Amino acid sequence: MRKTTALRAAAAATAALLTATACSSQRGQDAQDTAAGGACKGQQTTGITDKTIKLGGIYPLSGPASAYGTISKGVAAYFKYVNGKGGIDGRKVQFIVRDDGYQPPKAVEEARRLVEQEKVFAVFQTLGTPSTAAVWDYLNKQKVPQPFVATGASAWGTDDKHPWTVGWQPNYVAEARVYAKFLKDERHKAKVAVLYQNDDFGKDLLGGFKKAVAGSGIKVVAEESYEVTDPSVSAQMASLARSKANVLLDVTTPKFGSQALAADAKNTKWNPLHIVNNVSSSAAVLQPVGFKNVQGVVSATYFKDPADPHWADDPEMKTYTDALHKYAPDADPANQFNAYGWAVASSLHKALDTMKCPTREGLRDAVRNLKDVKVGMLLPGVTMSTGHDDAFPLETMQLMRFKGERWQLFGKPVDTRKEFGPLTK
């Protein structure tokens, strides 16, 4: 991704500052390094003690992607729940949330604040491809873990120059592969129109889809992009409708996802199969459009839908619902973004449990050495695995179709590693 001069200047300035303070910080932690054991001696213990662990998260609590902000409530509720049970390996979690408004320069400011002022152990969860890309150079230079970023860009798993950063959710190429397989199986001569966000997020999923359908009878016949600063996508939707495609691939963030669904519903002369990407599949996106207007829309997921009565008696879902009522009473348990937050926080818990050293280096290594780890909020058949040449924890998804007032799963989970092979660097 092309970096701006401002971002490079910010990274350089903060690197100089941290170099000046590193020696004094390390001297104050020598005792803990020694206690950690010979193999761990000399590794970074900033932000972690025998009793506490400090984590920071950067979310768009405001701005065009503010619908995602509630994810932080799901994360915070999980950590409060765990703290009530004694913490993670006896350590109480402090989770500090910062707002970047979905603006990369602001994300850089907040990352610096978390590292230099708050002295967090890790920056857990930076949300969005633009914001994550803006800060990963800085965090990797400072050797601060950036685990389970809230974006599915394939760069997080194919770039070997940023070992301190790792994704979590299925990457956008893997998701695109699931939709491609669905169309190959069900509509092998589909004509596809694509609406996509004009950044690495949108281009990643679109590129993955084109590659996955190459050589088949499926053709992309029209493409329209939009900017996150655009007021609406009505003009783009009108243009796509003129293509007379029988499938619409909707690669959008929530605000624009709602607009695209509404525009599709209003155009009675165009009735394509509407596939909306996972990040805009929340009921909070669909509800403003009216459930009657989104019947039959298709998407894919990898974690349990809290609005689906199928999971009403599921132990993890019960724990999640009770904890959210207790620790985040203003957050709706049925909102999938809150469930996402719970799922990713519990995934980090699993990774922290596997650390060989209670250090930043220990976490860096743990998240890249996961072996079929089960997480309660993930769908059956979906587990976390990473390795030396595989930094994508999740690459299995299951299709779902909107019927009535909720999503309904169909088909079997698709392991894209097995169906299409691993992504290459």
Automatic annotation (TrEMBL):
SUPFAM superfamilies noted in UniProt: Periplasmic binding protein-like I
Keyword Signal: yes
InterPro entries reported in the protein's UniProt record: Leu-bd, Peripla_BP_I
Signal peptide (from-to): 1-24
UniProt keyword terms in alphabetical order: Signal
Any Pfam family hit: Peripla_BP_6
Domain Leucine-binding protein: 52-403
Family: Belongs to the leucine-binding protein family.
Protein name (record): ABC transporter substrate-binding protein
Protein's organism: Streptomyces albiflavescens
Source species taxonomy: Bacteria, Bacillati, Actinomycetota, Actinomycetes, Kitasatosporales
